[in-house]
Design brief:
two-stranded antiparallel ribbon; 2 domains; globular; three-stranded antiparallel sheet; alpha+beta; D-amino Acid Aminotransferase, Chain A, domain 1; 164 residues
């Protein structure tokens, strides 16, 4: 992860000025597109992270984008009212899992054990991720069979790519 100002990152030789400016352009364009898609779903894309790599002189976008594990979304409905009242925004992200972990003494520090999650906690996390999916994708979540997971993933990716 790049840390520091643009000039510090370039001065440290982490990336060239040319690559940095290309990364900036890609980031702005991808965020703008994500913002547009989110708005159609009644959501506000608040923040996110993008991961890039470079191979043979070409910059590639890697890893997930605009998922609840890499992004935070607020519901557009009621946003202004909550903001004006100084209330916490209703959001879609994995933040609720992080909050549960911290409330149960886990901060991800070396030597710490992840606390046991009861079936009720697991069910509530599952329900929230289904809510996230349905609101971000705009489709009803249909739980897959528990058979050959790899075959199901390959089938779903192939179908998704065919829609692009």
């Amino acid at each position: 992860m790049l840390c520091g100002t643009k000039e510090e990152i370039i001065a440290q030789g982490i990336v060239s000025r040319e690559d940095y400016e290309q990364l900036e352009a890609y980031t702005r364009a991808i965020f703008q597109r994500g913002t547009e898609i989110a708005a159609k779903m009644g959501l506000i894309l608040v923040d996110t992270k993008y991961e890039f790599g470079k191979k043979e002189g070409k910059i590639y976008l890697m890893d997930e984008i605009h998922t609840p594990d890499s992004s935070r979304y607020f519901y557009a409905e009621g946003y202004e009212e909550r903001l004006a009242a100084g209330e916490k925004q209703k959001q879609l992200s994995k933040e609720f899992v992080r909050e549960w972990l911290m409330a149960n003494g886990f901060q991800g520090q070396e030597g710490q054990q992840v606390p046991d999650m009861t079936p009720e906690i697991v069910d509530s996390i599952t329900e929230r991720y289904i809510e996230l999916y349905e609101n971000i994708v705009g489709e009803k979540f249909v739980k897959g069979e528990e058979g050959d997971v790899l075959a199901r993933i390959e089938k779903n990716i192939t179908e998704c790519l065919a829609k692009l």
